[in-house]
Amino acid sequence: MANQPSAANNNGRRHKSEGPQKHIIAFIFSILLTVIAFAAVAAGEVNETFIYIILIGMAILQVFVQMAFWMHMKDRGHIYPIIGILFGITIAITAVVMAQYWVWW
Amino acid sequence: MSGHSHVDGQLPHEPEKATLEGRNKVLGFWLFLGGETVLFGTLFSAFLALRHQVLDGPTEQELFSLPLVAAATLLLLTSSLTSVFAIQAMHNNQVKAMINWLIITVLLGLGFLGLEIYEFYHYVHEGHGFTTSAFSSSFYTLVGFHGAHVAFGILWISLLIAQVFKKGLNVVTAPKIYVAGMYWHFIDVVWVFIFTVVYLMGKVG
């Protein structure tokens, strides 16, 4: 068993195990962004464009937090996944913008 | 080292990345998620283009109830957290804890699905059927597609739990669980846009 990584003395955890703290922080952050978005709508009677900007801003922020922490995109060695998903996001945004443009302008 | 067995019950720290097959599965799944992004992007674009075309049917403001949407959001968000805990337990080689977190994830997903079914049932009784208007068709297509993804995720993770019971956690089953966790996060990410674009923007006008 010479090629077995030195598992005996450190219980197989050669890397520092990550704790749950950062995921709980990401969770609290997501809840906070959600509450802000719901509150902005519930408050009502404010400038519509302003609320739209808040809503979209909160959604993009929350997706960024979740993809970075929960889908491990901020970890090392994720360059190809990032290229793949960015390609999808580019086409998706193009579809949304062009559908709006062709139908309503 | 054999990829399929581990001599003394020791797994590498990140068993999903221990084999080339596992790493390829993760990469391939990211590319699949890119395709899923395009799918939901086109559904969103159809919904955004048609959401004010209600004919004689009810409008967004009349239909949507924010407390119900908030409850569904909380369930799905929490289930995303519990699925990340399952992956952490897997990385620490705590199979029991991993299975427990996965079961909690599935239960929360079922709760979300139940709320959505109740919501759709309620809407149909309000006169908001699939063919009522362009708005209703694009609404049910977009939100229903997401609900179908949740249902598929529940089935998938349940089957994986059964497989871990039968075969244990090893370098073959670990990538499957990791990939299912990514899928579950992706569903949650799509829901963030659905509650923003469909429900909240619908309430604004």
UniProtKB/TrEMBL annotation, chain A:
<dbReference type="InterPro" id="IPR050968">
    <property type="entry name" value="Cytochrome_c_oxidase_bac_sub4"/>
</dbReference>
<keyword id="KW-0812">Transmembrane</keyword>
<feature type="transmembrane region" description="Helical">
    <location>
        <begin position="82"/>
        <end position="104"/>
    </location>
</feature>
<feature type="transmembrane region" description="Helical">
    <location>
        <begin position="24"/>
        <end position="44"/>
    </location>
</feature>
<dbReference type="Pfam" id="PF03626">
    <property type="entry name" value="COX4_pro"/>
</dbReference>
<keyword id="KW-0472">Membrane</keyword>
<keyword id="KW-1003">Cell membrane</keyword>
<dbReference type="InterPro" id="IPR005171">
    <property type="entry name" value="Cyt_c_oxidase_su4_prok"/>
</dbReference>
<feature type="transmembrane region" description="Helical">
    <location>
        <begin position="50"/>
        <end position="70"/>
    </location>
</feature>
<comment type="similarity">
    <text>Belongs to the cytochrome c oxidase bacterial subunit 4 family.</text>
</comment>
<keyword id="KW-1133">Transmembrane helix</keyword>
<protein>
    <submittedName>
        <fullName>Cytochrome C oxidase subunit IV family protein</fullName>
    </submittedName>
</protein>
Automatic annotation (TrEMBL), chain B:
<protein>
    <submittedName>
        <fullName>Cytochrome c oxidase subunit 3</fullName>
    </submittedName>
</protein>
<dbReference type="InterPro" id="IPR035973">
    <property type="entry name" value="Cyt_c_oxidase_su3-like_sf"/>
</dbReference>
<keyword id="KW-0812">Transmembrane</keyword>
<feature type="domain" description="Heme-copper oxidase subunit III family profile">
    <location>
        <begin position="27"/>
        <end position="203"/>
    </location>
</feature>
<dbReference type="InterPro" id="IPR000298">
    <property type="entry name" value="Cyt_c_oxidase-like_su3"/>
</dbReference>
<feature type="transmembrane region" description="Helical">
    <location>
        <begin position="138"/>
        <end position="165"/>
    </location>
</feature>
<dbReference type="Pfam" id="PF00510">
    <property type="entry name" value="COX3"/>
</dbReference>
<feature type="transmembrane region" description="Helical">
    <location>
        <begin position="177"/>
        <end position="201"/>
    </location>
</feature>
<feature type="transmembrane region" description="Helical">
    <location>
        <begin position="68"/>
        <end position="87"/>
    </location>
</feature>
<feature type="transmembrane region" description="Helical">
    <location>
        <begin position="27"/>
        <end position="48"/>
    </location>
</feature>
<keyword id="KW-1133">Transmembrane helix</keyword>
<comment type="similarity">
    <text>Belongs to the cytochrome c oxidase subunit 3 family.</text>
</comment>
<dbReference type="InterPro" id="IPR024791">
    <property type="entry name" value="Cyt_c/ubiquinol_Oxase_su3"/>
</dbReference>
<feature type="transmembrane region" description="Helical">
    <location>
        <begin position="99"/>
        <end position="118"/>
    </location>
</feature>
<keyword id="KW-0472">Membrane</keyword>
<dbReference type="InterPro" id="IPR013833">
    <property type="entry name" value="Cyt_c_oxidase_su3_a-hlx"/>
</dbReference>
